[in-house]
Amino acid sequence: MTDANIHLLKICSDWILFVLCIVLVPPLCLGLIRKTKARLQNRVGPPLFQPLLDLLKLCKKGETISSTMSGTFRLSTVVVLATMLVLAWMTPWLSFKPWSPNADLFLIVYLFALARVFTLLGALDSGSAFGAFGASREVTLGLLVEPALLLGLVALGLFSGSSDLRLIFAYSHFQYLGATAVPGIWLLVGISILLSSLVELSRMPVDDPTTHLELTMVHEAMILEASGRNLAFIEFAHALRMSILFGLAAQCFVHAAAAVWCMSALTEGLLSIGGICVIAISVGVLESLSVKLQWRKVPEFVAYVVSMSLLAAFVAAGTGVARL
Amino acid sequence: MMSSIDLCVLCAAVLACLMVGSLHLRLNLWLYGAETLCIALATLFTAQSHSESGLIYIALLIAGLKAAGIPLFLGWTSEKLNVHRDVGAVIAPPLAMHLTIILLAFSFILTRGLPAPSMAASGWYGATAGISLLFTGLVVMLTRRLAIGQILGFLVIENGIYVFALTQTLGMPMLVEMGVLLDMLVGVMVSGLLVFRIQKSFEHIDVAQLTSLKE
Amino acid sequence: MQFFVSLCTFPILGAALTAGSARIEKVRRTIIIISWLQVISVAVLCLPVLLGNVSILQFTPDFAVDRIGAYFLMLTNFVCACSLSHAPTFFRNESLFAGKTVPPQHERMFYASASLFLLAMNFVFLSDNLGLLWVSIEATTLFSAGLVYFSRDKHALEATWKYLMICSVGIAFALLGTILIFASSQHGAIQGGSLNVRQLLGCAKQLEPKLLELGYIFCLLGYGTKAGIFPLHTWLPDAHSEAPAPASAMLSGALLNCALFAIWRITELVRLTEHHAICESVPIFWGALTALAAGLFLVHQYGIKRLWAYSSIENVGIMLVAIGLGSPLLFFLQALNHSVAKVALFLLSGNIIQYYKTKDLSQIRGLLQVSPTCGILFAICAAAVTGMPPFGAFIAEWLILAKSADATQGIAVGILLVALAISFVAVSIHVARVLWGTPKSEIALSGTFAKYLIPSLLCLCTIVLGLSALPLIMVKPI
Amino acid sequence: MNAPVIFLESVVFLMLAALAAFVLCQKKDVSDKALSFLLCAIAAGAMAALCLTWNQQFLFETPAPFLLGVFPLTFRLDGLSRLFLMLLSLILFSTGLFSPGYLKHLKEKISGGQYWLSFLLFSLSMFGVVLSADAITFIVMWEVMSLSSVALVASDHTHHLVQKSALIYLGATRIASGLLCGGFLWMHSLCGSWNFADWNFASPQAIFPALLILLGFCIKAGVWPFHIWLPYAHPAAPATVSALMSGFMIKIPIYGLIRILVQGGLYAPEITNFAFVLGAISAFWGVLFALVQNDLKRLLAYSSIENIGLILLALAISLKAKAANLPVVADIAMTAALFHCFNHGLVKSLLFLSVGAVDCQAHSRDLHKLGGLAKKMPWTMACFFLGSFSICSIPPLNGFASKWLIYQSLFKSTLMYGSYLERGISLATICLLSAVGALAIATFVKAMGVGFLGMSRSHSAEHAEEASIGMKASQSLLVVLCVGLGVFASSALKIISQLAVMSPDLTSGTAIDFPLPIPMLTGLLITTCLAIYVIFLQSSKVKIFKTWDCGFGPLSAKTQASSDSFAQPLARIFRPFLRYETNSTIKGRDRRHFPEEIAVEVKIVSILEQRIYLPSLAMISYLAKGMAKLQAGSIHLYLLYVCSTLVILLLLGTVL
Fold first, then answer.
1. Residue A209 pLDDT > 80
2. Domain layout of chain D by residue ranges
3. Which of A124, B66, C75, D618 has the lowest CB atom count within 10 Å?
4. Residue D561: pLDDT above 90?
5. Which pairs with CB-CB distance under 8 Å and at least 24 residues apart come from D597-606?
6. Contact criterion met (CB below 8 Å) for D344 and D221
7. Residue C363 falls within a domain, yes or no?
8. What is the SS3 assignment for D539?
9. Model confidence at D630: pLDDT above 50
10. Count of structural domains, chain C
């Protein structure tokens, strides 16, 4: 086999592995959270891939839509899913990834915004009060976490001197990482991304996605009118978003470790998937242990997240001086 | 050393001060006439000292028109309108008189600062009398409510300026002199006619009550 | 002699004719023709100066006209001709719209006093002697009293009385000032003294400074009263508001210029001496403050003509600044632009008062619906008079501001800018309320375009003054 | 054909058109169409002229008879003015397309002659302002622009609110021009020239005139805290006018800032920092207030304040970077400012036109009366949605491209600045901008969702019909431009930097790197969407039923979230800024549990208006009243004034 063939093979395997991850990791995450919660409640819980099966089942069902709705509703699902898939391709949420274009951090954040806008529009299209409640809260949460997420990523960008996430997460910047602050920044940003993803994904302690009171909920209220394949796609897109965000957080932690210990590509790959799983499990634990915050207290919670990012960003801005 | 001109004009100034003290129209008009006569006399003396014949005519005109004509006209007006006494405004007449006397002293000080008239016949006193008459006229205008009183005040101001010109300058051009006199006469006539109109429209000639035009 | 003939014939003819027994319609027609003939005769008289062939035209020892005088002479005659040509229409409409009948003898009186008033004003610009200048100014007061008293009601009477009294007192001060200047000239400069402007200008440096300064102050105060400088302006809004519209137009467009011209004559003299600080900073700051005060007076204003009267005061302030800057051409430019627009405004306001039968600004609404032509002309003139580009007043004001800024009079520029802003906003709020909305009662209009003829002509003039090279030709030094 | 001739011709053409307007306005139907066509023709002509003379620059002075009194009119066309003129022509073209359909519903309310006269004057003067090369031409054109736009705002002057808005605008614009005049006069006394090219702001004395000029422009641009007039003027004006005003007129101050201050070499840190702070605050303040508006046009007006803030911020970043010798950052920021001007101009006019179409068809702009237009006016909805996405800077639209540049300039300045303070400030600004972005999303999701989706909240909205072809065409044109500029942003940026290089002292000419694979991503997104739809959703069986009503029977339109309730959670957070007050009154027996009538009123009190503007107006009014008391009518008092003036003058005489 020539080098070119090997190269081609590598690309193919990367793609296959990556697509598998995109399909399997999101349901796995959901499954892990559910399983953890069930175990902590002394239940056996559903199988790990039950969410995947649920989605498949939903795909077979027929769809019901409201007569109030315009085309926006179904369009929104499509756009959200497509955006999430594109995001999954571009964002370095796994250490192994096929070639992807410039994943500028501002672009990524605004692509998330694109998905959010369409989710919101879909929710408002039915004319249902629940959808609007959910949308209104989602938009509030979006405002609160967006600066945190962006600043976290900017902090990373600052010490790698680029806003391209491919370069930031490239594992190739360690030559100048004599600065002791670097693992600290990675850790801080990781925590910040993790916490902001909890808000972004409307999970505990901001929102409890498992209650059945739609009045209080965020994401579940927004997708109340969705059914059948539509629902399946929305759920999948949401899970994918969760995996991407958890993946980014996990990557941060792995990089923090990589700044201290040298590790091979295989370890990194395993660690990145393992990290997502660990995060999913700990989210499960957290959801079992904590209670939902009062809605008015959410900004206070988010304040911690933002301050974490700010701290990281300031440290990064400060250490950047030595390098340049 | 006080010349006869100075004496005359100072007399006029004092008469004007006395005029402030009374609200009786008739008395005021008499005083004004006497004052103007003094000024006419001063003009005559000036004519004599400068040996200028033109001034003699002016003196005669003043004596005839201003000292006699105007008081008579205004007196006739007040008879016609049946007003004899002013009500007085702003400050009481005796107080106003004291004020004018203080102003007389003040104008004495004020005119010290002026350069001495090089060729004129009179010295400081002429300027003092002129400025003092000016101030007195203003005080009269400010303390009279009747239209006639205001005209009188204006006439006193005019007298003051004339005295100033007479004593401080060496003969204004005749043309100007005549123009001034003419303008003033027409002014008095026009205002006198207006006084009748005011009486007719408002049934009084109290100008302090003419305050409908304001912001 | 030719000078007196060409100057006096037409006004005296006019006065005599109106006092005669001709029918009122005939009088009306004649007065229009006479007023324009007067403009032509004055133009012919001043032609050499206007063309710049000679810098001064001496008629007699005491009568002469220089370039500025000629300009002002032309302006005054033009303004009066415009007002007098509009007056017949105005009086006709008075019975047509406002339902008031004007007795023909009152109208005759009006034309007669207007003619004499114009004559007096002409002498202001022609007299080359400070004493005669004073006499002419006093004469304008007396003749214009008849114009102010026109409507013969209580308000008019009150306004006339105040006008006469305050202006007379003021003018008396100016006389004192003139005498002081005369006295100052006797101190060695000229044997026997003189009031002749040319002579005085020739030996300005030898004049007794103390007396000259005092004379300047008294003249500024005296003529300032006549010009309506704050706080001596008190007679002005009353007189302008109570006089009939054509008379207000003449008072504002011509009379104020006369008084300011007198101030300029004195300033011109004092500038040549070594003690010229007083004739620079005092007029500049006083002018700026006058503009500011007038701007504030404009804010809460209830009478449509009082509004324009205060706006005139504001413009007087600006002209005073130009005088203080020692720039007669800018002073004239500002006067020209102000007069043209202000006359149009007063004439239009006269029409509006006739339509709505009230002077009260709060009652006048929806002019654009009542008469779009009148509304648009009104808006254009108001914009012109408040110094908006592209009208002429903007150019003049801008030149004055630029000159003051270059003369490091920053504070005055600041005050002027604030004043201009306040007055613009105040005027435009009032004007906008007049134009917009719907009229409170039904108003039916009839008649021809004649009632807008003169205003629209003047409107055109302001635009031409702003958008052509005309000001350049005027401001160009000889 | 040389450039000056082309331009003069188009200007003269416009003037003739303005005259023709008066003649034609007698027959309204004809005149609207004819004049709209004329407008389009002029815009197209101007556009063609601009393109034909692409690489030329010219300086033109009017010959002798065509003077402004004593000054010649001087015009200059270079890269910078070309960019702005292109934007103006595009907006004019689309408003021209939009007008005939739109004006029909205003027929009874506005007078066609006055409207068109002012409109053409307004367009003409905007061309003039952008082309002017000296201070006098600038101020003249500027004032004509202001006055004609006031007349346009007051088109429908029988309404009291319209009158009030127009007057507020008039006051603001006069204060702005007063400040500008002050600055110009000051600069003239410093530099001795009226020509912008001769002005040098680098000297330390030039700080005060620069400040005056900055303030004047800020007022006109609607920068916080001088933005008060903007939310009044835009809703009062007809949509075509607001499109032009918001789309282009408020960019003219920005143009002026660039032309005068930036090209004049301003670097005084006091001024740039001041501009930076103002820009940052207005971006935030504008969007925050936009969020809680219910009138769509007011909402858009506040959003304009936000965007002007962003542009000013970018300008300030550029100036600061230039002073700190960071040409790369300076160039990025300057290009960002220019590009954002262009983008916002297009997007905002698109949005105003869409709202105009809604107003025209559904007879309301109040979000409480709209809803359900998605099915009635799908085309307008699509245009409005795309415009909203762009203004929320959602990729791949043009709003994102320029916002990205602003982010990049901040990111790069964080990287490059030497001082920690500057880095910190840049970081904090990034944080602020992302919050602003999120708030913009909230605002426009509200506008889209409440305005167009769900059920109709009023009878007229229920019976709305799709807008006319012209209206659709004009919106679509702008949408195409927005999308095109977004997707092909890198080419657009090349053109802009090319134009920027063509004017002196604007950028240092470094190539602006735009590495984002937007065209590819757009293609990918669209293909993925199509694939998902075609493969999965198309085949799925769809049953049409009703929205879930919890089993309580048919839902009324009132059960939907209203504009207020949608914004409430966010407004709550910013209560201290917004002065957001909710007053609810419940009537009926045993009030809590069996209410008969519930009234909820949401009030937003503008602090600036209440605390600063009204008191200062009251102060002027107080002064004026005090002044009026001087004129009390008493002749004695008047004589006393004469006396006291005499005393003062005599005292002054002794002093001087």
1. no
2. 3-521, 574-605, 608-655
3. D618
4. no
5. D600/D564, D602/D292, D602/D564, D602/D568, D603/D579, D604/D289, D604/D292, D604/D578, D604/D579, D604/D580, D605/D579, D605/D581, D606/D228, D606/D289, D606/D579
6. no
7. yes
8. coil
9. yes
10. 1
Chain A and chain D share a number of CB contacts under 8 A equal to 247
Report ipTM for this prediction: 0.90
Residue in chain D lying closest to C337 (CA): D69
User: Which residue from C194, C214, C183, D650 is spatially nearest to B126, judged by alpha carbons?
Assistant: C183
Region of residue C447 (left: phi > 0; alpha: psi -120 to 50; beta: else): left
Between chain C and chain D, are at least 3 CB pairs below 8 A? Answer: yes
The mean pLDDT of chain C is 89
The verdict on B171 touching C (C-beta cutoff 8 Å) is yes
> Residue C473's domain spans which residues?
278-478
Q: What pLDDT, on a 0 to 100 scale, did the predictor assign at position C423?
A: 93
Task: Identify whether the C-beta of residue C258 lies closer than 8 Å to the C-beta of residue C125.
Answer: yes
Are B170 and C157 within 8 A, CB to CB? no
pLDDT surpassing 70 at residue D23: no
DSSP assignment of C39-80 equals: HHHHHHHHHHHHTTS-SEEEEETTEEEEHHHHHHHHHHHHHH
End-to-end CA distance of chain D: give it in Å, rounded.
63
Q: Alpha helices of D366-419 — where are they, by DSSP H?
A: 373-376, 378-391, 398-416
As a whole number of Å, the end-to-end CA separation of chain A is: 44
DSSP character string of D462-481 = HT--PPPHHHHHHHHHHHHH
Contact flag C432-D170 (C-beta cutoff 8 Å): yes
In angstroms, the CA D340 to CA D450 distance is: 27
Dump pLDDT digits (tens) for C395-454.
Answer: 999 999 999 998 888 899 999 999 999 999 999 999 999 999 888 888 878 778 888 999
Nearest CA-CA partner of C225 in C163, C295, C170, C281: C170
Q: Is residue C132 within 8 angstroms of chain B, CB to CB? A: yes
**Residue D15's pLDDT is what?**
65
% of chain C at pLDDT higher than 70 = 99
Residue A161's region, left for phi above 0, alpha for psi from -120 to 50, else beta, is left
E strand residue ranges, chain A: 63-66
Shortest Cα distance, chain B CAs vs residue D615, angstroms: 23
- Domain assignment of residue C420, yes or no: yes
DSSP label at D603? E
The structural domains of chain A, with segments of one domain joined by +, span 3-323
Burial bucket for residue B214 (CB in 10 Å: 0-12, 13-18, 19+): middle
pLDDT tens, D583-628? Answer: 878 777 666 677 777 787 777 777 788 888 899 999 999 999 998 8
* Count, residues in chain B: 215
Would C324 be classed as within a structural domain?
Answer: yes
C346 lies in some domain: yes
Q: Print the SS3 string covering D168-216.
A: HHHHHHHHHHHHHHHHHHHHHHHHCCCEHHHCCCCCHHHHHHHHHHHHH
pLDDT (tens digit per residue) in B44-85: 988 888 877 888 888 898 898 888 999 999 999 999 888 888
Whether residue D435 lies within 8 A of chain A, CB to CB, comes out as: yes
Q: What is the mean pLDDT of residues C336-361?
A: 93
Residue among C232, C378, C436, C464 with most chain D CBs within 10 A, to mutate: C436
* Sequence-separated contacts (24+) of A293-302 with Cβ below 8 Å: A293/A205, A293/A206, A295/A137, A295/A216, A295/D569, A296/D572, A298/A140, A298/A141, A298/A144, A298/A199, A298/A206, A299/A144, A299/D573, A301/A199, A301/A205, A301/A206, A302/A141, A302/A144, A302/A145, A302/A148, A302/A196, A302/A199
DSSP string, A36-80: HHHHHTT-----TTHHHHHHHHHHHS-EEEETT--THHHHHHHHH
User: In this complex, is the C-beta atom of A225 within 8 Å of any C-beta atom belonging to chain D?
Assistant: yes
